[in-house]
Amino acid sequence: MIWYAALVLAVAAERLAELALALRNARWSLARGGTEAGRGHYPVMVALHTALLAACLAETWLAGRPFAPWFGWTMVAVVAAAQGLRWWCVRTLGRRWNTRVIVVPGLPLVTGGPYRWLRHPNYVAVAAEGAALPLVHGAWVTAVLFTVLNAALLTVRIRCEEGALSRLAGADAPA
User: Fold this and answer.
1) pLDDT tens-digit series, residues 44-60
2) 54-73 core/surface letters (b: 16 or more CB in 10 A; e: else)
3) What parts of the chain have a pLDDT lower than 70?
4) Rounded Cα gap, residues 152 and 141, in angstroms
5) For the chain, is the Cβ count within 10 Å smaller at the N or the C terminus?
């Protein structure tokens, strides 16, 4: 269980690094005329992701969930792959990557890296990690709850992003 707690804490540290990068990138975007959309759902997203980390540890400990090596190590691989995909997204978007929805006028839609194949690859990473991290140590209730709640949140989030991008494209269209 100690190594699992270390894994969850490593993911938490990664989240804090993401937030620091997002803050820096938000300043960059806003300084270039970027506008933020979806402020209302952002606190819900932060709470859900924080609850995921806490629930992984709580369920494993309180329910005495065992580690099943054949399944647990597979889920560790999924978590690692999700991290790889997430950071590929971050690298591809560069200064435009953010945990918030901020669009900067005049910048073209990113179509390279994982965006060549998927419209929202970062959310594929989030969904995979959110299901796999709890399952590493048998926290299946957490995995199911996060997956359902995250699907509802992503419905709102993706609609918000698409709306912000389409408004930007409309604003940039010649008159």
Assistant:
1) 999 999 999 999 999 99
2) ebbbebbeeeebeeeeeebe
3) 169-175
4) 17
5) C
Strands (E), the chain: 35-37, 101-103
Which amino acid is located at 51 in the chain? A
CA atoms within 13 A on the CB side of 76: 15
Give the relative orientation of helices 121-135 and 140-172 as an angle to the nearest 10 degrees: 170
Contact 156, 40 (CB under 8 A): no
Residue 139 contacts by C-beta under 8 Å, 6 or more apart in sequence? Answer: 55, 56, 59, 60, 63, 65
Hey, CA dihedral for 54, 84, 90, 169, is it positive or negative? negative
| 1: CB partners within 8 A, 6+ apart | 60, 61, 67, 137
Q: For residue 37, what are the β-bridge partners? A: 101
> What's the sign of the alpha-carbon dihedral 16, 54, 60, 71?
negative
| Residue appearing with tokens 């992701």 | 49
